[in-house]
From TrEMBL:
<feature type="domain" description="BioF2-like acetyltransferase">
    <location>
        <begin position="212"/>
        <end position="370"/>
    </location>
</feature>
<keyword id="KW-0808">Transferase</keyword>
<dbReference type="Pfam" id="PF13480">
    <property type="entry name" value="Acetyltransf_6"/>
</dbReference>
<dbReference type="InterPro" id="IPR038740">
    <property type="entry name" value="BioF2-like_GNAT_dom"/>
</dbReference>
<protein>
    <submittedName>
        <fullName>CelD/BcsL family acetyltransferase involved in cellulose biosynthesis</fullName>
    </submittedName>
</protein>
<dbReference type="InterPro" id="IPR016181">
    <property type="entry name" value="Acyl_CoA_acyltransferase"/>
</dbReference>
<dbReference type="GO" id="GO:0016740">
    <property type="term" value="F:transferase activity"/>
</dbReference>
Length: 458
């Protein structure tokens, strides 16, 4: 890391290490943002341009203390960026007396104007700037210090921040910072997230499930057990960490065999032809690295075996309050016994016993999620663009952002989008009907031309 030190009025500036005491704010700043300038608090900001020296243990602890999901932690984000990501990592740490108080993981992309995204953008269901709420320093101030450190490294950058939970504190903090630093803010709806609130006890869960459903569940377990020796594996990773400490090569072989099994289950799913294959290609390498590197308990991988064959699995990530169900699958020839549902119900009960308050089924509106009567939440995309530019650079910025966000722009106008497609479909049908009638009646006089509306490709 570069280490040229400058003095700036009581603040120090290290290339790669930036003190926050010399940051200029507009006159309409809030008290929290004004405090970012206060040198008496002893805050310093370190900016790293690589992942090798990331403060991994502290990063994990901070994500949990901030109440954020594992999608914002080092094990997930480093794997996603390595195998699926783009741009140069830009990691911002805010410390006081050596303690990590806040952290931002970004990726810096080049172009006509620098672009900052969250690290792992596109491959993560949630993103956030992490800040410890119990330090005596306001979260708004800590988030502002992280963002200030990021844009100091990339002056004039556009910030394209995806998958921020809507309605939460993070949107407000990012927007507050943007408005006080002279950025225009555009908020775009991005994804629907299905969350199942969990009761306090398994008895409450079973009572809500109903007598008939519990009877059917027992019947399906019996049917599955009749097909062979049934083994319920609540932890398919059991013993892997210990084996890795003793014999890393043997542990790697065991993990490779397990990932092969998981991929084979996906290949045998009833809807395999149209489902994505998470354990293949770059996605498979990403998830394999997460399985290898994440601390015990972060990844929860359970499964069902019949005569030794893995017939269903569920892959989850454990957060501070929620269990996040990332992907599950089962083999089609066992579909009549409902192994996916059986495993999901077991997973729900184990989550309740473990003290989780909700099962987060993440992005998507799949039918099986709706049967659990979830609560729908949303994530948004925040696009922060510097204001006060000349006309041409401003147009270039808007065009560059639109290239990245056009799908979310369409979602923002979902009703108009549906109306457009309905009109296009009606006109297509009308033109087809006219063509058929003209073909049936060759002497029919020509009709006035119908307006042409071309359907857009999805």
């Amino acid at each position: 890391m570069r280490a040229r030190v400058l003095r700036t009025g009581g603040a120090h500036l290290v290339r790669g290490v930036v003190a926050v005491t010399d940051l200029a704010l507009p006159p309409h700043r809030t008290a929290d943002l004004e405090l970012v300038q206060d040198p008496a608090q002893g805050l310093s900001v370190t900016v790293r341009r690589h992942l090798d020296s990331a403060p991994v243990p502290e990063w994990r602890v901070l994500a949990a203390r901030a109440g954020q999901s594992p999608f914002t932690g080092p094990d997930w984000l480093r794997a996603v960026h390595t195998h699926l990501g783009a741009g140069e990592p830009l990691l911002v740490s805010v410390r006081r007396d050596g303690r990590l108080l806040a952290f931002g993981a970004f990726a810096l992309l080049g172009g006509p104007r620098p672009l900052l995204t969250f690290l792992g953008a596109g491959g993560s269901d949630y993103a956030a700037v992490l800040a410890d709420p119990d330090t005596g320093v306001s979260v708004a101030r800590l988030v502002a210090a992280v963002l200030d450190g990021a844009v100091r490294e990339a002056p004039g950058a556009v910030l394209d921040l995806e998958q921020v939970p809507a309605g939460g504190e993070q949107v407000e903090l990012l927007t507050q910072w943007a408005l006080h630093r002279g950025y225009a803010v555009r908020t775009l709806p991005q994804a629907t997230v299905q969350v199942v609130p969990l009761p306090a006890t398994v008895a409450e869960h079973d009572a809500a499930l109903g007598r008939h459903a519990r009877h059917e569940e027992r019947r399906q377990w019996r049917r599955l057990a009749e097909l062979g020796e049934l083994v319920v594996a609540d932890d398919l990773l059991d013993g892997l960490a210990e084996l890795r400490a003793q014999d890393p090569e043997a542990a790697a072989d065991r993990l490779e065999e397990l990932v092969t099994e998981l991929a084979e289950v996906d290949d045998a799913h009833p809807h395999a032809a149209r489902r994505r294959r998470p354990w293949r290609g770059a996605s498979g390498r990403t998830l394999t690295e997460v399985l290898w590197s994440a601390p015990a308990g972060t990844v929860q991988l359970s499964g069902l075996r019949v005569d030794g064959e893995l017939v269903a699995y569920a892959f989850c990530l454990a957060g501070p309050r929620a269990l996040h169900g990332y992907v599950q699958s089962y083999r089609s020839r066992y579909a009549a016994t409902g192994p996916g549902t059986l495993l999901l119900l077991r997973l729900l009960r184990r989550a309740i016993v473990s003290g989780f308050t909700e099962l987060d089924l993440l992005r998507g509106d799949e039918a099986y999620k709706k049967r659990l009567e979830p609560v729908a939440r949303r994530t948004v995309r925040l696009v922060l663009t510097p204001t006060g530019q000349d006309l041409l650079p401003g147009l270039v910025d808007r065009f560059g952002v639109l290239r990245r966000t056009y799908r979310d722009e369409i979602r923002r106008h979902e009703r108009l989008d549906r109306s457009y497609d309905a009109l296009a479909g009606a006109l297509d049908r009308l033109r087809g009907e006219v063509s058929r009638r003209r073909a049936a009646l060759p002497g029919l006089p020509g009709l006035p031309g119908l307006p042409g509306v071309r359907r857009r490709r999805r």
